[in-house]
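The methods section describes the discrete structure representation at length, but only in general terms. An entry of this sort, consisting of the sequence and the corresponding backbone structure tokens, reads as follows.
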Amino acid sequence: MENANSEREQAKDGEIGLIDFFAVLWRRKIMIIVITAFAMIGVLVFSIISLMLPPETSPLPNVYTSRAYMLITEARSSAGDRETLLGYGLGRGPTYAALAMFLLRSNALLDSVIDEVTFTRYGDYNGLHAALTRSMLRSGLGPRHNENSGVLSVSFTHIDPAFARDVVNLVVVRLESRFAEIGLDRGRVEQDALELHLAEVFQNILLLDEERRRLEQSVAFMPLTGGNIPAIMADINRAAMEAEAMRQVYTQLRVRHEMLRANMAAETPMLQILELAEVPYRRAGPSRARICIIVSLAAGFFSVLFALALEGISKIRRDPVAMLKFKGGINA
């Protein structure tokens, strides 16, 4: 019985407290409405002004996001069937995707993009972006890797859509170049070495043929000038034999080079560009409607709290005992 009475009293107290709360809001309704309306009008005017001002001077300019897509292949086809230099296969250890994400944040790649934007064909875009920095580029880039599809998307957000497109394409090209420079694709490294060796062997063949022709010409004038014909003939035979040996080496290298090219053509590249970035025509942000709603709700909540605080202060001032306690607490 006592528990039932206690529950009824608690419910009644809660009901009275709720009534008091709404009573306070009703008494302070003008203040609450004025504060909320002022905040709504202020944020609306701010949004309109930010939309009308030029992007470089606007406090809240429109931003555009341009995006490019690349395919990262972790596993090699049966034609190559080689493990990566980073780990021990798909799903174990570091991966090409992890390396790509690291390179996209590296100072070397960012600096190369900044140099290209600042000093070369991309110019300064009417003077707006001459001061592109590492922090700006690093914060603006948004790389994401989808493990299921292996697609790496690289995006950049900026107030100039054309500039955003150019930066993304530069980053993608630089990333592809960095992968090639690191030498992770052993087939590509071997192909470059073979091409260099082929050029060297071909040059040696030309030199030996030139030496043989020079010796043969000297033999033709030997009866007039005198000389050791057998020694010169030995040099001619040596040059001819060395040239023939070099031709055989060149043939073997050429066959190996063509076989390697065929194997590499059958493989999927570890990193390939699927789609370059284009100029975005739809803005990525900001959502001014959302900002207006958030500011209006925050202003309404603040005005309610302010009304409750004023009501509490008013009650304290009207209560002599509370004022005496308050003054006594201050004196203490």
User: Anything to note?
Assistant: The chain has three domains: 17-56+288-331, 64-185+271-275, 187-266. Residues 17-56+288-331 form one domain.
